[in-house]
Amino acid sequence: MNAAEILLSAGADAATAIECDERRVSYAELRERVRRAAGAWQALGLAPGERVVVFAPDSDDWAEAYLGAIWAGGVVIGVNPRLSMAELTPILKECEARFVWCEPPQAADLQGLVATLPGAPAVVGGGVAERDWAQALARAEGIEPMQLDAEAPALWIGTSGTTGTPKGVIHVQRVVVNAHSFACNLAGLTSADRLYATSKLFFAYALGNSLFAGLRAGATVILDREWPTAERVEEMVAKHRPTLLFSVPTLYNKMLQTGVAARLADRGIRHFVSAGEALPLAIRQGWREQTGCALISGYGTSETLCLMLYSDDDSGVMRPTPLTEVRFNPDVDAELPQRIWVRHTTVAVGYWKRPDAQVDFDSGWFSPGDMFLRHPDGRLEYAGRNDDMLKIAGQWVSTLWVEQALAAHCGEALHQIAAVGVDSADGLTALAVLVVAAPGSWNEARQRLEEGIAALPGHRRPRWVHWLDALPLTPTGKLQRGRLRSLHERHAAAAA
After folding, report:
1. Whether 221 and 300 share a structural domain
2. CB-based contacts of 146: which residues, under 8 Å, 6+ apart?
3. Is the confidence at residue 231, as pLDDT, over 60?
4. Residue 44 in 3-state DSSP?
5. 310: domain range?
6. Are residues 91 and 148 in the same domain?
7. Per DSSP, what are the bridge partners of residue 362?
C-alpha cells in the first residue's frame, strides 16, 4: 500500500480537497499535483525510505510536497517553521534527513545551516540553485505511487519534548487507513464537511484528525498560513465556513475571553473538538453557555496520531474512541492511578534510535506516559504524567487537578500556572505552584490565588507559591514540566 494514495482515494474529482487563502484545490487537481511532486522528488534523487523534512507554513503547497514525498516512497517529517536554525539543527542531525523542503524566505538560512551538518541534506525550495521546487515540478512527470509493505515507514512526528528531549515517532503506511474513525463516528464526518484545525500540521493533532481524516473521507480541509489567535479563528470561520473545528483549550479560552466564542454560535459549526491538553471544566461550561454547543474533549499523542479517548460531558471522564482497544496492567490495583495500553491502526511502531523507550510499544499496543484512574463503569479519568500523580497525606493528588482548580478560581487574573511535586525538609512529598500573573493583575491574581488555595482540601494545598515572569515552554508552546522541579528549588533557595 501507499499512505498518500489511500488518503487521496476517496474524494470525488470535482470536490474541493483543500482551501487555503483564495486557493481551492479539487481532488482531481490534488492527485495530479501529488503525482508530479512525487516525480519531482524522484528526479531530485529521493530513494525509498529516505527522510524529507517539510519546513514551511501550512498551505496546499505544503500538502503537495508532503504527500508527494510519501507517494514516491520517502519518509516525511513536518517541522515547526517557527523554529530557529539553532533549534532545527538537532532535528536535522537526529533524523539524518536527505532533503529539507522550504519556501524562499528560509532557503538562504537553511543552506548555511545544512553546510555545517554531517551528510549535508539538500535544501529544496524557491530560488535554490539546481533544486528549485517550481522548476523541478515543471520538468517532472507524474508517477504511480510506490507500493510498500503496510509496516514500511511513511512519516515521522516529533514528540513535543515536554518532559525531556523530543523523540522521532515512526508511523507506517497503514497509519492513514482508519485515520477518520474518530471524526466519522463521533463527529458525523462526511464528504460534505469542511474541517478546520487551528493547530498546525506539524502537530499530530491537526495532521491526523483534520488533514488525514478529512482527505480520507473525501471532505474539504481548510488550511491557514497564519499563526492562530482568537481573532484569526473568527476570520477563518467567517471566510471558509467550517462545519467541524479542532482547537486546543488555551485558544478556546481566549475565544471565550474575547467574545469570539459567542460570535461563532450561528456559523454552522456542528462540532467543536478540543485536544492537545486537558480541558478544564470552566472552559467546557463556558463554551456551552456562549455557543450552545458542547465541546468534545479528546486524548491522543504523537505516538497515536489520532484521538484514542474522548469525553462529551461535564465529568471529563473518558471512554475509548471507535476502533480503539484499551488494556490495563493486571498487577496494578484497579483503584490506583496507572498507565494504560491502547491499540489502533494509527498507533506508531516505535521511536527512531531510542531502544530504551521501545518498552512503551508492544505488538501494536502503545502505553502513553500519562496516568489514569479507572472508574467502575470502565471509563478513565486523566490524571497527568506519572510524575504528576502524588500520594500526599495518604491520598492521591494530581498536579493537574490542582492547576485546574486554582486557574478556575483566579480567572483572567492569572496568565499561567503549573504545579509540581517536591520533597520537603521533613522527607514528605508536598506541592509547589509556579504562577505568572496576567499583565497589570498581580495584586488581584495574588489575592485570588490565596483564596483558591484556602478553598482546596488540605492534602491538595501547595506549600510553596513562586511568582515568575514566565514559565518554560517547548518550541511548540507546551509547558516543559521537566524543568519545574529545578525552578522550584532555585526559587525556594533564593527565598530562604
Report:
1. yes
2. 2, 38, 48, 71, 72, 73
3. yes
4. helix
5. 181-328
6. yes
7. 365
Same domain, 189 and 170: no
CA distances from 425 to 70, 402, 489, 492 (A): 55, 22, 12, 12
Which of 175, 191, 212 is at the close of a domain?
A: 175
H or E element at residue 116: none
The segment with the largest mean pLDDT, out of 161-175, 399-413, 442-456, is: 442-456
Same domain, 188 and 312: yes
Residue 158 has what pLDDT? 87
Predicted local confidence at residue 378, as pLDDT: 85
C-alpha cell at 20: 487555503
Give how many domains the chain has, as a whole number: 3
The rounded mean pLDDT for the chain is: 92
Cell numbers standing for residue 118: 554531517
Cα–Cα distance for residue pair 446/60, rounded to 1 Å = 47
Question: Which residue matches cell numbers 479519568?
Answer: 381
| Residue appearing with cell numbers 517539510 | 54
Distance (Å, rounded) from C-alpha 304 to C-alpha 308?
Answer: 7
Q: At what angle do helices 281-291 and 399-410 cross, to 10 degrees?
A: 50
Is the pTM for the entire model greater than 0.85?
Answer: no
pLDDT at residue 426, rounded to an integer: 67
Give residue 301's pLDDT band: very low, low, confident or very high (50, 70, 90): very high
Cell output for 305: 496520531
